[in-house]
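User: We ran a pulldown and think these components assemble together. Before we commit to crystallization trials, I'd like a predicted model of the whole complex to look at. Sequences follow.
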Amino acid sequence: MFIIGECINGMSLKIASAISQRDKKIIQKYALDQVSCGADALDLNCGPASPKPLVDMAWLVETVQEVTEKPLCLDSSNPKVIEEGLKASQNKTIINSTTADPEKLDILVALAKQYKSKLIGIAINAKGIPQNIDQRVELAATIVAYCQQNKFPVEDLYLDPIVLPINVAQAQMKDILSAIFEFKSISQPSPKTIIGLSNISQGSSVRSLINRTFLTMAVANGLDSAILNSKDKALMDTLITAELILNKNIFCDSYLEAYRKK
Ligand code: THG
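Assistant: Here's a predicted model for the assembly, 262 residues in total across the polymer chains.
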């Protein structure tokens, strides 16, 4: 599982204030803590309240790459913000994200090729979030077809079915899990799959339990990657165990310890 740490997100007041105060220490601590807990890459999102997201994204990239060489996942719905992040990046990058809309695909697939970046494609378009499995697969297939036609390698494309909060969309969870499975057979070679895990528990009181239960089910449906809180130890232990059961690691009685030493 390719793990992208979710914590550097201006949705959180602490991060939003560190960004506006230009407090490098706090951001760099979040970066290093997530990496030491098992993050393979770091999501960077200036948050919805940022008054100047272009300069904020460039500052976040520069600040984080002073302390780590891990790939950076540039998270914004505004392609101009993503482009500023790409320009500032020396580390590998992941563009987060394009929708299935042609205007977005035109800009973001070209940027991904230009900067040799990986790309997340979300199963959403200007009409909104899909309400069933067929719509999710159709939107994902639109993104795959665009990448194939424009010679962007499908192996570098991560398809995201969009995880919704369970407290408002309980009836959709089964479809979201099936979409993870279905996305893998849209093309040969297969695209990769990804979710923003913590979305599921927003507004719920037992967040960590809901997160780790859903992650187990998503892993069983073939999930390749997740944006999650790697500092949640119970979550990480559950993930390691799920992968062990799926024969992705060698069994031994001290597998949790053995995995962390890898
Ligand atoms: N898909 C893609 N990108 C995404 C999402 C997605 N980026 C943003 C989001 N969804 C994933 N990131 C987060 C980050 C934080 C939280 C949820 C999703 C979150 N944080 C807690 C809070 O704000 O209450 C705090 C957690 C903590 O304290 O550790 O809920 O779906 N492609």
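The pocket of (6S)-5,6,7,8-tetrahydrofolate is lined by residues 6, 9, 11-12, 45, 75, 96-97, 120, 122, 160, 162-163, 196, 198-199, 202, 227, 229 (CB under 6 Å). That may be worth checking against your pulldown data before setting up trials.

User: Thanks, that helps.
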